Amino acid sequence: MAVFPPHVHTAAWGIAVALAALAGLAASASRDARNSWKLPPAGWWIVLLLTGAIAINVTFAAQRLQAARTVAMWCAYLCMFLYCAGLRRGPDDGEPAVRRVLGALAIVATALAVHGLYQSLYEFERLAEVASSLGLPEAVRARLGSTRAVATLGLPDALSGLLAISVPVTVWLARANERGWLRRLLWVMTFIQGACLVATRSAGGFASLALAGAAVLWWRGRTARGAARRRLAIVLVTTGLSGAALLLAARLLGPGASGDGNPLALRLGNWSVAASMARDHLLFGTGAGCFGVSFPAYREWGMNETQFVHNSFLQLFSETGLFLGGAALAGAVALGLTMLGSGVAPLLAVACVSFLIHNAADFTFYVPTVGFTFFCLAGLVVGPRDGRLGAREAPVARSGGAAVAGRGVAALCLASFALIVTRADMKRDAARDAVVAGEHSLAAALAREAIAGDPFDPEARSLLSRLEFEQSVATHDPGRLVEAEAQARRAVEIDPHTPNHWHHLGRVLLARGDPQGAYIALSRAAELYPIKIEYRKDRDAVLGALAGAAPKEPAP
To answer: Which carries the bigger pLDDT value, residue 489 or residue 37?
Structure first.
């Protein structure tokens, strides 16, 4: 359950992508011409092939706008990674800059942890008592009843993924700080974050942190002198998995468990769908970020409705295909091996590896707050060539002006795209808020502004169509019905894979006196979402009406 309204999260996404793009521009402008990121000649061919694969993926995506937004987020991740890597290459103040960034991470994570503990210990229990009178859905009431902390991230697993990164970072800061009072404060912050991690009751977050710590200890204890480290790794794995099992048991047996269902069974269903989707779209996938759009056609009884696979690596293969998914997996493995190397501080390595492990059973890679945090930290960790904080290098010639200008144009285009799309999304979210408040005229006006700002958003067009359809029924205005049909048709043209758009178009066509067209649209909705009983009932009802209205052939 989201704590902030949707438009707040929408604004945060756009601003974060824009700032990351500009940070990438700053990093490219300050990058020298002979840096370690320079690709060999063969590497440029690989970049060209990957770029072509991304272009094909977006072009043939189930929903192009969603694919473009997702690719923009990934580009922003890369920009943030490069910018933070550059912070540790400065000749004067690399180490203070790193400490400031890590300190900011610790402060933000602690603030979120305090909020999450407040929710778990007080707020959700109070809201659960009045949830029925507020008319909240059963799933929301169950989530409130579970009292699992979410802070402002909307999901317990997202918060646990962020805390699994921040706890080792805060411990590292506490151990590295020489000021007594600040060190004690950092240990208190660590305790608060750890308590909130438990309050999320996320077995994945707890287990990933323990497994990451054990992996670092085991990898660095492969010598005879490291036998003690390997024994400690075994103890850490045993303790971590036991703790994760206890958290899972508390989640399954505690209040609100019926709303979550069995997480293991649900994840197996998600993985099965992702594997089928990857098999059917082997080369280029269904489109970046489009798993949720294609999911209804694969859903079977007993599966949950979801936008994510709960395994980011498998989701990448299903969405981007063999080439891009394989490249992402290879990059994750390379980054993980880098983190396990001796040149990285152990606690910072644990923070990064925990993210990679967590994404084998969850989707925090797709949660911008957690994703940006990870890539920022990863950039700080792998930035210097010798792996030490504050590594200094002699200044060398910088990149040419043409190269910097080209990267600047790309960064500005990315930032502009994020801000334009975000502005339109906020208008659409405001229109939805107006619908809830009963201000239909205002909602329609805002929906039109959203369409003007982003003509390729099917959701804004579908919303306007529904508003016009409702008003046409209430006022018997045929002009509104014509507008409703036009917007509904445009929505399915932009997004032909979402069954809800087809179902709404069928209702509009039926009201327009076109039962044949309505049957075709409703049949398409039922085809895209086979287990949705409502769609099949509406299709069969129209079919029955058509059969009853058809002229009977004379008896021989």
So the answer is: 489
Neighbours of 230 (CB within 10 A): 17
Q: How many domains does the chain have?
A: 2
Looking at the structure, tell me whether residues 114 and 247 fall in a common domain: yes
Are 380 and 460 in the same domain? no
The conformation of residue 123, written as its DSSP 8-state character, comes to: I
Cβ atoms of residues 492 and 504 within 8 Å: no
3-state secondary structure of 497: coil
pLDDT tens sequence across 109-143: 999 999 999 998 888 878 777 666 655 666 666 66
The parent domain of residue 515 ranges over 423-548
- 32 forms bridges with which residues in the sheet? 398
Measured in degrees and rounded to the nearest 5, phi and psi for residue 554 equal -65, 145
By three-state DSSP, how is residue 420 classified? helix
Asked if residue 257 and residue 188 are part of one domain, the reply reads: yes
Residues 103 and 176 sit within 8 Å (Cβ to Cβ): no
Same domain, 108 and 166: yes
Phi-psi group of 285: left, alpha or beta (phi > 0 → left; psi -120 to 50 → alpha; rest → beta): left
Q: Which two tokens stand for residue 253?
A: 């047996």
Residues 349 and 471 in one domain: no
Q: What is the pLDDT of residue 393?
A: 46
Rounded to an integer, what distance in angstroms lies between the CA atom of residue 342 and that of residue 219? 9
Cβ neighbour number for residue 206 with a 10 Å cutoff: 28
Residue 32 in 3-state DSSP?
A: strand
Statement: residue 320 has pLDDT above 90: yes
Question: What token pair was written down for 97?
Answer: 């800059």
**For residue 465, what are its two tokens?**
């169509």
Residue 295's nearest CA partner among 280, 284, 283 is: 280
Length of the chain: 556
Band of the pLDDT at 476, cuts 50, 70, 90? confident
Query: Residue 55: CB partners within 8 Å, gap ≥ 6?
Result: none
b/e string for 64-81 if b means 16 or more Cβ within 10 A?
bbbbbbbbbbbbbbebbb
206: pLDDT strictly greater than 90: no
The residue-averaged pLDDT of 424-442 equals 89
